[in-house]
Structure prediction request, 440 residues.
Amino acid sequence: MNRKQHGMFIACVTLIGLVITLAFAPSVALAAADPPGTPAASTPTATTTVQGRIVNRTPEGTVPPSLTVMIHAWDTAGLEQLARPGTANPDGTFRFDDVPVSEGWTYAVMTIYQEVTYFSEPFNLSPDEPAPEIEVPIYEITDDSSTVLIDRLHIFFDVTPEGVIITEVYIISNTGDRTIFEAVTLNDGSKATLIFPLPLGASDIRFNQNLDGEFVLQPGGFADRMPLIPGEGVRQVFVSYTLPYQDNLIYRHEARYPIKGVTALIPSATAIALSGEGLVFAGQQTTPDGLSIDVYTREGVNPGQAINISLKGTPNFRVGNTVGRMDTATQSRPWDVVIGGGVLGLTLIGLGLWWMRRSQATAPQPQPASGTPSAAQPSAAAVADVVTAFDQVISEIAALDDAFERGDIPEKEYRQQREALRQRARELLAEAQRVPGGSQ
Prediction:
């Protein structure tokens, strides 16, 4: 893949994030990385003590003695400012003395158990308040994948002169109390955690990240080697590929794991209609650059069932903000007009936020008695606070992705920092869903 093609792919998945994050929430602005020249956080002048405990959350699980722990800190640009190792006591407690305090930093404590890395929830430190008690959860591992749940499968279609580009975004949960690891045996005898289908004839297959063989192509699909820890939305996977386009093309996805819901999106300008069993048109959304998106949904797909979506029509595709026919000469891909860059974190996590907002916007609201304040007002304010914090985390993820793309951060540090920030974003999403009036 050359640099231009890679840029187009990044722009494509960024578009999905823009569409879904801004949809149904027009008053929320897209967070961006700090602009050049923004002052960095001040040099810490105070220190504090951070202490806590490693807890095995698998029933009857134990904490082995003397696990290695490490406290990390990142500034608002996502750059690591602290990485100090230590050793937990035999009872799982740990303590870090003289930890530098900066109100602009995000902190987390990590440990490795049975080859799986675990983080505490990210936290902040203040020179005026004692540090919070930190808990680092660990879990036993299993090769039983029966607790895997695809919360949402997002499928983005676009028709170009090269064919139909399909981008799938999986939001994955582990509903059990053990980390799933090495649940699948691949053709070469090696192990992976999850496996996903790809259609026959798929070409130009790309992933959002592929660090140390994280994703492995297999006949008829691909495998994901990353462990799946317990929790909601703990794993997000992108895959993009191209298929030859023909009228009435059938997209087929045979579910290996239960899928709670499906979203299918296609630019309205392509003039392609989507249809399929259980697929419902949910309306149109418009991105800031004026691109209209048709949105379809489907609920409930069991393992072994197939998602069949038909693409019907003679395709159009955009040139800048105009529409041209497929046979028009010297046209560029539609994603050339979309904001590019490494805002993958926005897309990965923003999908879940969109569905939270959508459920809140469409759910019946309680009607207050005459003369009483609206019950929706406190909920809206509470959600706004969470969204502000969420946008800050997204900004930090975007800056971190950009720094990694430039080669400023080693791969290992990048993995650790990004996982800590993603965990913080998941925490904020869960908090928003607990707000009265939020999604259920």
